[in-house]
Design brief:
This protein is of the alpha+beta class. The protein folds into 3 domains: 32-152, Porin chaperone SurA, peptide-binding domain (Triger factor/SurA peptide-binding fold), CATH 1.10.4030.10; 176-277, Chitinase A, domain 3; 283-389, Chitinase A, domain 3 (Roll). The chain contains 16 helices and 11 strands. The chain has helices spanning 2-19, 43-56, 66-89, 96-109, 114-123, 128-152, 157-164, 167-173, 192-210, 215-222, 244-250, 279-283, 303-318, 323-330, 353-360, 391-422; strands spanning 32-36, 39-42, 176-185, 233-237, 258-263, 267-277, 284-295, 342-346, 371-373, 376-389, 425-427. The chain has a 4-stranded antiparallel beta sheet, sandwiched between helices. 19% of the residues are buried. Mean pLDDT is 87; it is low at 1-30.
Length: 429
């Protein structure tokens, strides 16, 4: 066994030497800080990570001694290497475009362009390529953790039911509202003249809104509310976070609906529902049932011949031939032909844009014109429309995700500890 381990170590040293040949000086034995299963940690990795920590520290003088930091860094690198090994064995990869997007988002979070971000990193004495590589590894580790936790964390139906019955569950699954607010104050106390003047001004604003005036502009011009300069926008809020005065009114409002004037001790309020989201808003889904015939051009059928065949078959259906029969005999969509072209209930998001657009614009029971997509030539018939309530499913998914996230960090720590204990790790002094 000892001979085998020595052979592995020698192989790792040679691999490290050749892998670094085109990038830097060869890694020799005294530059290896640790062996982690079939990978190594080079001393340069530790020093680079130490430099990054110091560069990012708000007060470098408050950091622990370098030796203590190096110990922490080595342990962090060990568990990173082990997780990356699992990710690679699972075939997890990060494309260049995904990595570019990630770097761009980090730059934007720092209010910099990507070029400015790169310059800032290099001015701190750090390597942009090293940071890019570290971000890539963080993405891979995040994905492998998510995949492993999906199989390790199980949330039962009873756990979801129990949480939904609690006050916390009801708060979590409550819809959120983005409300616009205008306050017309009483000027000069609550005398009848002051109240009447404020009421008249509020009524005039509501009338202006009804004829197309812009809510945000009126709020900035007329409102005495604390959010006037934001166009009266109160931001996203749960019902419990809305002002008590109009919380009960807001929950029943449709998007773009305006209510008021609502009187309070300070004046008259006008509210507008700008947006809403949550189970009630997103749980009601428009669905369409559709069937189609697809004719494809091929080696013996030209593009124009495929179009003409589709037109001829559509003409036969319009003249009275059964749609399902034509689909079974002629449609070249293997997923639907045997069922008479039926694609079932859908939202439209499942289809290519040309198909979705034609489906939305076709009345129920009408055979559409022939149209082209990347797949070939189609015509379709909408056979049903409905609004399906998925609000309960939406709430249950919210709760499941919440309960899963509560357990996530703890279970990740357990998993990392397990793979750390099972790994071969040699730390060199």
């Amino acid at each position: 066994m000892e001979n085998f381990i020595n052979a592995v170590r020698s192989a790792l040293v040679l691999l490290a030497f050749f892998a670094s040949w085109t990038h830097a000086a060869p890694i020799v034995m005294d530059e290896i800080a640790a062996i982690v299963d079939d990978d190594i940690i080079a001393r340069s990795e530790i020093e680079n990570r130490l430099a990054t920590i110091k560069a990012q520290a708000a007060n470098p003088a408050s950091l622990p001694p370098d030796n203590a930091l190096r110990e922490q860094i080595i342990e962090r690198l060990i568990v990173e290497k082990l997780q990356l090994q699992v990710a690679r064995r699972a075939g997890i990869r990060v494309s260049d475009s995904e990595l570019n997007d990630a770097m761009r988002r980090i730059a934007e979070q720092n209010q910099l362009t990507l070029d400015q971000f790169r310059q800032a990193i290099e001015q701190d004495g750090l390597s942009y390529n090293d940071m890019r590589r570290q971000v890539e590894q963080e993405i891979m580790i995040g994905r492998v953790q998510q995949g492993v936790m999906n199989s390790r964390i199980e949330i039962s139906t009873n756990e979801i039911d129990d949480f939904l019955a609690t006050e916390a569950g009801q708060e979590l699954t409550a819809d959120e509202f983005r409300v616009g607010h205008i306050l017309i104050p009483f000027k000069g106390g609550t005398s009848s003249n002051s109240v009447n003047a404020a009421k008249a001004e509020a009524d005039a604003i509501i009338e202006a809104l009804a004829t197309g005036s812009n809510f945000q502009s009126l709020a900035m011009e007329k409102s005495a509310g604390s959010n006037a300069l934001e166009g009266g926008d109160l931001g996203w809020r749960k019902p419990s976070a809305l002002p008590t005065l109009f919380a009960d009114i807001a929950v029943d409002m449709a998007v773009e609906e305006v209510k008021g004037p609502i009187r309070s001790s300070s004046g008259f309020h006008i509210i507008k529902m700008i947006q809403r989201r949550g189970a009630t808003a997103e749980g009601l889904i428009d669905q369409t049932r559709v069937r189609h015939v697809l004719i494809k051009p091929n080696e013996i059928r030209s593009l124009e011949e495929a179009r003409q065949l589709a037109e001829d078959l559509r003409g036969e259906i319009v003249a009275g031939r059964d749609f399902g029969e034509v689909a079974r005999l002629y449609s070249e969509d293997p997923g639907s032909a045997l069922s008479g072209g039926d694609l079932g209930w859908n939202t439209g998001r499942e289809f290519v844009p040309e198909f979705a657009s034609m489906m939305r614009g076709t009345e129920e029971g009408v055979v559409s014109p022939v149209f082209q997509s990347d797949f070939g030539f189609h015509f379709l018939e909408v056979t049903g429309k409905r609004v399906e309530d998925f609000s309960d499913m939406f709430k249950r998914n919210q709760v499941e995700n919440y309960l899963r996230n509560q357990s996530f960090e703890e279970e990740v720590d357990n998993w990392v500890r397990e793979i750390r204990e099972d790994a071969f790790v040699e730390i060199r002094s």
